[in-house]
Amino acid sequence: MYADAETVRRILRDSGDTWAVVGLSTNPSRAAYGVARVLQDFGKRVVPVHPKAETVHGEQGYASLAEIPFPVDVVDVFVNSAQAGAVADEAVAVGAKAVWFQLGVIDEDAYARTREAGLDMVMDRCPAIEIPSLR
Fold it and tell me: Which terminal Cβ of the chain has fewer Cβ within 10 Å, N or C?
């Protein structure tokens, strides 16, 4: 409902290789940790974004998207729905090409704003589930 197969494919294949994963920490029991590893295995550079700014999977972390000193192509969002809209707005502000809200992360107003800003967006899906269909 919140993304067609072509948008999913375009984000995963064509939107670029630098993915900021918002909510990624060193906690291996969290979904973001495993999904980030899948993204790396798929050839993406994963940049952790978390208040603790921890290094995860060998990549330096940052406390916010605005602190990342290089361009980000896709922002993958693992925060709760109440916080997701602000992250989407920040993704637009930093010039990302696409935003991906993970399973269970839903904010229809943020989806509309992000699309209106010209970014591709997927909501309530997981790239780790979608990637195998591309191989």
Answer: C
Sign of CA dihedral 38, 12, 58, 33: negative
d(CA 69, CA 134): 30
Taking 3-state DSSP, the helix, strand and coil percentages for the chain, each rounded to the nearest 5, stand at 40, 20, 40
- From the DSSP assignment, how many helices (H) and strands (E) are in the chain? 5, 5
Residues 6+ apart with CB under 8 A from 50: 22, 23, 24, 25, 61, 63
Per-residue pLDDT of 89-131, as tens digits, reads 999 999 999 999 999 999 999 999 999 999 999 999 999 999 9
Q: For residue 119, with 0-12 CB atoms within 10 Å meaning exposed, 13-18 middle and 19 or more buried, which class applies? A: buried
pLDDT digits (tens, 9 = 90+) for 48-71: 999 999 999 999 999 999 999 999
120-122 and 74-77 beta bridge pairing: unpaired
CA distances from 114 to 36, 86, 133 (A): 23, 11, 26
